[in-house]
Specification:
- There is one protein chain.
- The protein is α/β, with parallel strands linked by helices.
- The protein has two domains: 48 residues, no CATH class; 206 residues, Rossmann fold, CATH 3.40.50.2020.
- It is built from eleven helices and six strands.
- The longest helix is centred in the N-terminal third of the chain and has 25 residues.
């Protein structure tokens, strides 16, 4: 006898009545209730709240304000380059100070609409854009994700997690994992000490601020050895936080550590050769 899928075995085979009810729900009731919900809570742009056709999207005007990062980009840092220099294309910043991680990619520059979207998601509990963010991450990180073994979000310190109630990086990683099928390890990395806010700190101050702040969960550390890991974060500013995380993963013998973020700050001098 052929093995029955777990879900089907638990619920039992569908009866004709159950199958008919599902058809009615999918074919008639669900669209009807969806239409009623749209009348009561009409779909609006997740940035400016203008009426649009579908939930969880941007209007054309707000979409046009997002500065997506497209090739040519630095092979290591993922910052945009002024012109294609041929492979491997490296920025001046990557040559002068190679990062601990292997490669980084980001969806867009941290400016205008993208900044507002991330701050609303992070500080104002606006999560309706999460499915869209996951699709953007999948597209921007295509080369990193093609053979990745694990998605690992940058952790929050427990007190900050309690105050904020969620870790935005973990939510991004989980949504991306659903799209790609790549396992997500939200508890692999731990933030062991409270660090000052990175806002307003210099590059050196940021590095000192997060130095030694992360470690692997002892019970899960073995899952890193020999694996291709993609760190997930919302914003790469100077890269100090993701480098501190990458250093811990390197010590645990990860085969590769890449970084994928919704946005990154791009300094004008980062790509000038």
């Amino acid at each position: 006898m052929a093995a029955m899928p777990i879900g089907e075995a638990e619920l039992g085979p569908k009866t004709p009545a159950a199958a008919s009810a599902e058809w009615v729900w999918q074919g008639s009731l669900r669209p009807l209730l969806g239409g009623i919900a749209d009348l009561l809570l009409p779909p609006v742009c997740i940035s400016c709240r203008t009426r649009i056709g579908n939930h969880g999207l941007l209007c054309g005007a707000c979409f046009a304000k997002i500065d997506f990062i497209t090739p040519p980009v630095c092979a290591r840092l993922g910052v945009p380059l002024p012109y294609d220099t041929g492979p491997p294309a490296l920025s001046a910043a990557a040559i002068a100070s190679p990062p601990v991680y292997d490669r980084a990619r980001a969806v867009a520059r941290y400016s205008d609409t993208m900044r507002e979207l991330i701050q609303s998601f992070k500080y104002r509990d606006r999560q309706e854009g999460l499915p869209l963010f996951a699709r953007w991450l999948k597209r921007a990180g295509e080369e990193l994700l093609s053979d990745a073994d694990l998605l690992v979000p940058v952790p929050l310190y427990p007190a900050r997690l309690w105050w904020r109630r969620f870790n935005q990086s973990a939510m991004l990683a989980t949504a991306l994992g659903r799209l790609t099928g790549i396992p997500v390890e939200c508890l692999l990395l731990k933030r062991m000490r409270r660090t000052a806010s990175q806002v307003g700190l210099s590059v050196d101050q940021r590095r000192r601020n997060v130095g030694g702040a992360f470690r692997l969960d002892t019970a899960r550390a073995h899952r890193v050895k020999g694996k291709k890991v993609v760190l997930i974060d919302d914003v790469i500013t100077t890269g100090a936080t993701v480098e501190a995380c990458a250093r811990v993963l390197r010590r645990a013998k990860a085969a590769r550590v890449d970084v994928l973020a919704l946005a990154r700050v791009v300094e004008p001098t980062a790509f000038v050769l």
